[in-house]
Design goal:
This protein is mainly β. The protein contains 4 helices and 21 strands.
Length: 352
């Protein structure tokens, strides 16, 4: 309900100062010199509310697939075949062919961190320590790959996690079938294990020299690069609102401080499931939030009266009239003031 009230002119000065960031606690008084001449203004009532106070921060995000990674493939030679960029690579797909020899992409939990081979009985390392047979999860993973393709050394190779003679023979049979020399040694020039499907980002032309393979995840990722203060509003794991039609939400998968030629900045990546990047365009606005106070008494900033002696008051309508009540101003978040000295449900006067 709109009403006409007599209110001190300090109201406008104090509210404007608060909104401009000039007041953050009860000790600040940017309008202390303001005269308290009275004037008639239109007002309305607003209740004192107990609530969590959340500050929001908007940022512009580039739409894409996130930070790329370089696959651990080291080759020298000319590209003889490659899938087009933005191809989703699935288990068993060929990443690239160099000199007519394919490099396979396979899903697996263990990276190929060492060449897999049969170790000789008397082989030793540089310190003279006997090496022994290769065994472990990476061996079992490749054995499973061979078994799935039907290479089992005529039934003699089993999933025993040990690179023995039967595994070596199965490897040689596989290598012959795909056009690699039958060395019995498996390395990253032949196969790459990754934990999930990826999207090829590198564009190859047949006949060019091989260059490193860059890939990303297959999902839509929104990337924000800005002030390091953004980390408070976009922490990892937080749910973020995305301004789109229809509105969607995403989850922060990365929020880290980086340093480069442009200085120190915050790099934030937000994963958005089930949305094609083309549907969002090149950039979108995202909104992060930060809870500044919980279970706090609040009034609109416009209800505050800054007094000449540094104190703060509000006008409270008790149903039978209006009286001024002194309050402690705890802090200001946006257009909301956190106060002490009133009760939840009290009605305060605010100018229109």
């Amino acid at each position: 309900m709109v009403r006409t009230s007599t209110i001190g002119s300090a109201v406008a000065a104090s509210a404007l100062a608060v909104l401009a960031g000039g007041c953050s606690s009860s000790g600040d008084n940017p309008a202390s010199a303001a005269p308290e001449a009275e004037t008639s203004v239109d007002t309305e009532l607003a209740p004192v509310v107990r609530q969590d106070v959340v500050e929001t921060q908007k940022a512009q995000a580039a739409v894409g697939y996130g930070t790329s990674i370089t696959l651990p493939v080291e080759l020298v030679g000319l590209v003889t075949w490659a899938p087009p960029p933005l191809t989703t690579l699935k288990s068993g797909d060929v990443l690239v062919e160099v000199g007519g020899r394919p490099v396979f992409f396979v899903l697996g939990e263990s990276p190929l961190y060492r060449p897999l081979r049969l170790v000789g009985r008397w082989e030793v390392d540089e310190a003279g320590t006997r090496l022994g047979q290769q065994k472990g999860a990476d061996v079992a993973q490749f054995q499973q790959y061979l078994l799935d393709l039907g290479f089992d050394d005529k039934g003699r190779m089993t999933l025993d996690e040990v690179f023995g003679l039967s595994t070596q023979r199965a490897v040689k049979d596989w290598q012959k079938s795909v056009g690699h020399p039958a060395t019995g040694i498996v390395d990253s020039a032949q196969i790459v294990f990754m934990t999930s499907e990826v999207l090829l980002q590198t564009e190859y032309r047949v006949g060019q020299s091989f260059t490193p393979i860059e890939v990303t995840g297959t999902g839509t990722v929104l990337t924000v690069s800005g002030s390091t203060t953004l980390r408070e509003f976009f922490p990892e794991g937080a749910t973020i609102d995305v301004s789109a039609e229809p509105p969607v939400t995403g989850v922060v998968t990365r929020s880290s401080r980086v340093s480069d030629d442009d200085g120190v900045r915050q790099l934030i990546e937000i994963s958005v499931d089930g949305v094609n990047p083309d549907e969002l365009g090149q950039s979108v606005e995202v909104v992060g939030s930060l809870t500044q106070a919980t279970d706090a008494l609040t009034v609109p900033v416009r209800a505050l009266l800054a007094m000449s002696d540094g104190r703060w008051q509000v006008e409270v309508d008790n149903g039978g009239g209006v009286q001024r009540v002194e309050v402690e101003l705890v802090s200001v978040i946006g257009t909301t003031a956190i106060i002490d000295g009133l009760d939840e449900g009290d009605n305060v006067v605010i100018p229109l």
